[in-house]
Amino acid sequence: MDTRVDISGYCIKVNLKQYSVHLVCNFELMEAMKASFGNVEKLCRQVLDLHEQHFGVSLKVPINSLIIEVLGHAYAYRVLLQLRKVADLKIFRKFSLNACHIDCGDSAHDSNRWFWDMMGFLKPVLFLGVREA
């Protein structure tokens, strides 16, 4: 199910599936993230709530893991776009396309869920100065 989520005036496209959610690292997401890391947390909470409302069961993805995955993909995408300006190599294009698509699912349907779950401990450090809205 395709839907849009409004986070602080930024309209972010979200695709919900039975065991996963899919986001695209586009201009709106990057601008929302640039405005505040808190927007990313709001987005992730709202996406998990939407998934539970639509499918009647919560997605088994810890909130900190989801936040770090979105941030990780967004920053990787930003770096890869800069690298493509320096040298538009095929490998940079491939990696930037992969980084642009943020696919988050429970561990049975997301092969790298373990990595993002493990990296979830970084969220409190990254959000140290971020205020709750």
Tell me, rounded to a whole number, the average pLDDT.
88
Distance between the termini: 28 Å
| Number of helical segments with 4 or more residues | 6
Shape: globular
Enumerate the strands of the largest sheet in spatial order, edge to edge or round the barrel. 1-2-3-4
Order of helices and strands: EEEHHHHEHH
In this structure, how is the largest beta sheet organized?
4 strands, antiparallel
Structural class: alpha+beta
Strand content: 15-25%
Radius of gyration: 15 Å
Give the fraction of residues assigned to helices.
Answer: 55-70%
Residue runs with pLDDT of under 50 for 5 or more positions: none
Q: What is the number of beta strands?
A: 4
Key features?
133 residues; alpha+beta; 4-stranded antiparallel β-sheet; 6 helices; 4 strands; globular
Write structural notes for this entry:
This protein is an alpha+beta fold and about 130 residues long. About 55% of the residues lie in helices and about 20% in strands. Strands 1-2-3-4 form a 4-stranded antiparallel β-sheet. The protein starts with a strand and ends in a 7-residue tail after the last helix. The relative contact order is 0.18. The mean pLDDT is about 90.
Layout of helices and strands:
Layout: E1 2-7, E2 10-17, E3 20-24, H1 27-35, H2 37-55, H3 63-86, H4 90-100, E4 101-105, H5 113-119, H6 122-126
Antiparallel strand pairs: 1-2, 2-3, 3-4
Helix pairs in contact: 1-2, 2-3, 3-4, 3-5
